[in-house]
């Protein structure tokens, strides 16, 4: 009976040593997310003789005051660029997802299309286009159209400093697909949320400490092998 107790003790010791050694080397990750943030900078960016949005500051809050552009038939808007979302992420943050939500409508028929939407950094479009010409809503219901998710990084490799940059944000382009009628595009609000994990650095341990633990683990394995061999031989 004593030999079996000895084997059990060695198994438990081995498991403890392996667990400690794993935790020494493991990097922990805690998933988290920001709140939805509003832009501080909203501006028109020229596109192919497009048409400018007016009352740009109204995009910064959802309050039923609209920035708008009056689109002639078969014409594009200029890019509406929103940046400086004032993100402040913890140290060692790893970006896992980016979600954009837009409250917009045209008030008539489904002829106003979101032609393109990109993330932007340092004045340059980045990642993939999240639109292929979807009609926007025809009334203001104070609901948001969503792009991206908690696991969608838009084919980018953004860092904490990129997200926190005042030049990070998005830009969106609209198109009036009607052949002879003008329509308004009305935008109430645009927001971004960031999903991230926090990577904790490996603890700094004395190398002799790690070597001793590994040697104890090896010794425990050898003892277990020896004990099982003796049991088999005696049988």
State the helix count. 3
Q: What series of H and E elements makes up the topology? A: HEEEEEEEEEHEEH
Tell me the structural class. alpha+beta
Let me know the average pLDDT: 85
Sheet-strand content, in percent, reads 25-35%
Count of individual domains? 2
What is the CA-CA span between the terminal residues? 15 Å
Radius of gyration (CA) equals 29 Å
Question: Could you tell me the number of beta strands?
Answer: 11
Low-confidence stretches: 24-28
CATH architecture of the largest domain: Sandwich
Shape: elongated
Task: Work out the helicity level.
Answer: 10-25%
Q: Tell me the CATH topology of the largest domain.
A: Jelly Rolls
| CATH C-level class of the largest domain | Mainly Beta
Can you summarize the main beta sheet?
A: 6 strands, antiparallel
Protein described:
It is a single chain. The protein is α+β, with helices and mostly antiparallel strands and 235 residues long. The protein has three helices and eleven strands. The model is unreliable at 24-28 (pLDDT under 50).
Please provide a brief summary of the model.
This protein is of the alpha+beta class and 235 residues long. Helices cover 24% and strands 33% of the residues.
């Amino acid at each position: 009976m004593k030999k079996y107790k000895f084997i059990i003790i060695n198994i438990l010791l081995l498991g403890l040593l392996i667990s400690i050694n794993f935790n020494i080397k493991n990097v922990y990750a805690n998933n988290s997310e920001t709140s939805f943030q509003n832009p501080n900078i909203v501006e028109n960016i020229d596109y192919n003789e497009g048409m400018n949005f007016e009352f740009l500051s109204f995009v910064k809050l959802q309050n039923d005051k609209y920035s708008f552009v009056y689109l002639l038939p078969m014409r594009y808007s200029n890019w509406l660029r929103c940046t400086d979302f004032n993100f402040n992420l913890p140290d060692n943050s790893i970006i896992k997802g980016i979600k954009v939500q837009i409250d917009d409508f045209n008030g008539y028929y489904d002829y106003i299309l979101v032609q393109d939407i990109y993330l932007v950094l340092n004045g340059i479009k980045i990642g993939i286009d999240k639109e292929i010409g979807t009609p926007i809503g025809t009334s203001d219901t104070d609901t948001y159209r969503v792009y991206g998710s908690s696991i969608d990084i838009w084919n980018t490799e953004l860092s904490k400093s990129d997200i926190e940059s005042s030049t990070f944000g998005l830009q969106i382009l609209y198109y009036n697909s009607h052949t002879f009628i003008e329509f308004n595009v009305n935008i109430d609000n645009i927001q971004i949320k960031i999903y991230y994990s926090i990577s904790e650095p490996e603890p700094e341990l004395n190398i002799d400490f790690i070597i001793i633990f590994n040697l104890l683990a090896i010794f425990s394995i050898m003892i277990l092998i020896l004990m099982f061999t003796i049991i088999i031989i005696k049988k």
